[in-house]
Specification:
The chain is mainly β and about 750 residues long. The chain folds into 7 domains: about 120 residues, no CATH class; about 90 residues, Immunoglobulin-like (Sandwich); about 100 residues, Immunoglobulin-like (Sandwich), CATH 2.60.40; about 90 residues, no CATH class; about 100 residues, Sandwich (Immunoglobulin-like), CATH 2.60.40; about 40 residues, no CATH class; about 130 residues, no CATH class. The protein is about 10% helix and about 40% strand. It has 4 helices and 48 strands. Strands 13, 14, 16, 17 and 18 form a 5-stranded antiparallel β-sheet that branches. The longest helix has about 50 residues. It is rod-shaped. The two termini are about 150 Å apart.
Length: about 750
């Protein structure tokens, strides 16, 4: 079987219904029990009221009476100060319910309330007889007390009756015998007989031949006797207290003491109790014996007072002496602080404590230590060491208790939350210091120093600048002369730098800022003065001191800004170009022609001079063609076509018809032939090789081959066969440019490509 894990819906509904039934039964039972209790309470109240009415009937023979009357006449005690008895079942008032006395002299509380339109019990609802007793004016007799005698008369409820047709008999509760047989009854004689106090129930009986009419009892209360103040004291009169208690013993032989007044008399006499109407008096609560009353009155204010007491009839008496009340202090002492309101950077001691201008300060308790005080004030101190403008009292000083001599206590702080400290130990902040020359052209000694600064506490007060490193010599400037953007001051201060114009000195400028507490912050910046003659004006005279390679002008120079005299020479360069940047040449020497006959090349040496000042700039070299006609003839320039040369001709007139294959290499002529070997003057492109042998020609002319030439003697003017060698040799060398020397037995000459042996 599966386990059930909860109620089904049917089961749950059943449980709910069952609980509802149980609760309903419970509520019904509780309500029933409560009703039973309230009914029982009402029965008890009803019984108490009816018993009081029966007692009232025995005293007054009144067969009908309001519950309110029973309360006021002292037969019933009310539930509360409002003099009301309520129905416990519904909390409604029973005061205007009528209690009726039956023939068995038993009381019966009515179920209806008889309240008139003014909210009072309707007296017309009670009718005991056909006649009633009223005053001479036909008014109902007051339930309260009269101050003087009144006259009673009979009022007929049936207006058809004739008052003069009856004989009258007046009696009272205290005088059961006839006291008067007049239609009206003046109580003055009785008032006098009883010592000016009447509190009696009066009755009147009217008899004629047809009927006898009896009135219900009418109580009349008259009190013409003043109350008496037997004693009046203020026990703690000479001691400081929060208040004082006036104790009075007053008596009254008649109506009883009802009210009193303790009135402060002003300097103009107003406030005397005798002049104050009774409705402003203080009502005395009901007491067992109102004829002997002890009054206690709380006094909360110093002053001069009078005391009056009044009975229920309105008779009042004044205490014979004025009462002077002093040493009342109901004003708590004040939590006092002696604050600092001027900014300082030194520790601040704040005084805290008590001020009381009434009874004076008695005690100051701080951190579980109590100090006894004298006088109107009493203080301790708390020293602040950190930066504050206003400090929270609770979190710094903390709580303390003060008490005056009257016992008034206050726990401080009360309404004050902060105390002014005005302590600032934090230096101002300097954002930047800049120096600007008052002369826009150069850094002058006359400057404007711009300081940007702020202070978050006491605020910036003054600024100054100096170049001495000490603010003692500063002329402080109030920040009122500065501009302000948000919380930052921008101050421009004139400063003459301690130097002279054009010195070129590097100077340190010191800026100082002082706040309202006297804290000083400093910041420095560097400033370089203009150097004289950095920029000049001049008048030039004469020409440049050199024609080239840098000279100077001779000048009369002054500083551009200061006008001071600068050096008269060498300050402006001129002719800075090299002397050898523009030259000319002069032929210095000529070397030997590299050909022993015919055309060759020779080296030319030049000396180079400046065209500016003819100074020597070095040497240069070049080559030029030369012609040596010794032992030479003019050969046929075209050896490929045979034939001897003119003027003696050459035995070498044929080279096997071989030519140079390249047009750039041209054979010019045969220079000589010796022993069947012909030498040729050749040019390879633009390069002249001079007279060289055929064996070397191949390298220069790129000719492919040359066949052997025929021998023969040269023609007139030519060389006869002989032994010679034209190859370069170590037996020849340069002695100097353009001159070759050799070992003994050798002739050497300068050729294009070096020194060569020409003969030996």
């Amino acid at each position: 079987m599966k386990n059930k894990k909860g109620f089904t819906l049917v089961e749950l509904l059943s449980v709910i219904v069952l609980l509802g039934i149980i609760i309903t039964i419970g509520i019904f039972s509780v309500s029933s029990i409560r009703k039973t209790i309230l009914d029982r309470q009402y029965k008890n109240v009803k019984t108490e009221i009816e018993l009081a009415a029966e007692k009232y009937y025995s005293d007054t023979e009144s067969t009908e009476v309001y519950v309110d009357t029973l309360i006021k006449e002292g037969y019933l005690k009310a539930d509360n100060k409002s003099m009301t008895i309520t129905d416990p079942r519904d909390k409604t008032s029973l005061n205007c319910h009528i209690v009726t006395i039956n023939d068995n002299e038993e009381g019966n509380l009515g179920i209806e309330s008889n309240i008139d339109e003014n909210g009072n019990c309707n007296e017309e609802a009670i009718v005991n007889s056909e006649i009633s007793i009223v005053d001479i004016d036909g008014n109902k007799i007051n339930k309260t007390w009269y101050k003087s005698p009144i006259t009673l008369k009979v009022k007929f409820n049936n207006s058809e009756k004739e008052p003069n047709s009856y004989d009258y008999t007046w009696k009272s509760e205290k005088n059961p015998n006839v006291i008067s047989d007049e239609p009206i009854y003046n109580l003055e004689n009785l008032y006098n007989e009883r010592g000016y106090v009447i509190d009696d129930e009066f009755y009147v009986t009217l008899v004629n031949a047809e009927e006898t009419l009896e009135s219900k009892g009418q109580r009349v209360r008259i009190d013409g006797v003043l109350p008496e103040i037997k004693s009046l004291v203020v026990p703690d009169k000479d001691t400081w207290t929060k208040d004082k208690t006036l104790k009075v013993n007053a008596t009254d032989v008649g109506s009883g003491i009802e009210s009193y007044i303790f009135s402060e008399v002003k300097e103009n006499g107003e406030g005397d109790c005798e002049s104050i109407p009774l409705e402003k008096y203080n009502k005395i609560p009901d007491m067992p014996n109102p004829n002997d009353v002890k009054i206690e009155h709380k006094i909360t204010k110093n002053g001069t007072y009078t005391f009056c007491a009044s009975d229920k009839a309105g008779n009042k008496v004044k205490y014979e002496e004025t009462i002077i009340i002093e040493k009342i202090d109901d004003i708590p002492p004040v939590c006092s602080y002696i604050e600092n309101t001027k900014w300082t950077k030194s520790n601040v001691a704040i005084s805290f404590g008590c001020v009381d201008n009434e009874s004076g300060c008695a005690k100051l308790t701080y951190k579980n230590a109590t100090t006894n005080c004298t006088g109107a004030s009493c203080y301790k101190t708390y020293t602040y060491t950190n930066t504050y403008k206003a400090a929270n009292i609770s979190s710094t000083i903390g709580t303390f208790t003060i008490e005056d001599n009257a016992g008034n206590k206050v726990i401080c702080p009360s309404d004050k939350k902060e105390v002014n400290v005005y302590l600032d130990k934090t230096n101002p902040v300097i954002n930047s210091v800049t120096v600007k020359s008052n002369n826009s052209n150069y850094n002058s000694i006359y400057t404007t120093i711009t300081i940007k600064t702020y202070d978050s506490h006491s605020d910036v007060k003054e600024v100054c600048v100096s170049n001495s490193g000490s603010y003692s010599s500063c002329s402080w400037v109030n920040v009122s002369r500065c501009s302000k953007s948000e919380n930052t001051y921008i101050c421009n201060i004139q400063l003459t730098i301690n130097s002279y114009e054009g010195s070129g000195d590097n100077k340190t400028v010191y800026a100082y800022v002082k706040d309202n507490a006297g804290n000083i912050q400093s910041k420095t910046t560097n400033y370089k003065l203009y150097t004289t003659c950095t920029y000049t004006n001049f008048n030039r005279y004469g020409s440049c001191s050199k024609e080239c390679d840098g000279g100077v002008y001779y000048e009369y120079r002054t500083d551009k800004y200061l006008g001071t005299n600068c050096n008269g020479y060498g300050n402006t360069s001129c002719n800075t170009m090299s002397c050898c940047s523009w030259t000319y040449q002069e032929r210095y020497s000529t070397g030997y022609c590299d050909a022993s006959c015919g055309w060759g090349s020779q080296r030319i040496t030049y000396k180079i001079y400046s065209r500016y000042d003819d100074s020597y700039c070095g040497r240069d070299y070049d080559y030029e063609d030369c012609y040596d006609d010794s032992d030479c003839y003019e050969p046929d320039p075209d050896p490929g076509y045979g034939g001897g040369g003119s003027s003696g001709g050459s035995d070498c007139d044929t080279i096997n018809d071989n030519r140079c294959d390249r047009s750039a290499d041209t054979l010019y002529w045969i220079s000589d032939c010796c022993d069947g070997i012909c030498n040729y003057a050749a040019r390879a492109g633009s390069v002249a090789y001079g007279t060289i042998s055929r064996s070397r020609l191949s390298a220069a002319s790129n000719c492919s081959s040359y066949g052997p030439g025929g021998g023969g003697s040269s023609g007139g003017g030519g060389s006869s066969g002989g032994s010679c060698e034209t190859t370069s040799s170590s037996n020849c060398w340069y002695e100097s440019w353009g001159h070759c020397v050799g070992v003994e037995g050798y002739n050497c000459e300068l050729k294009r490509n070096g020194c060569y042996c020409s003969d030996h």
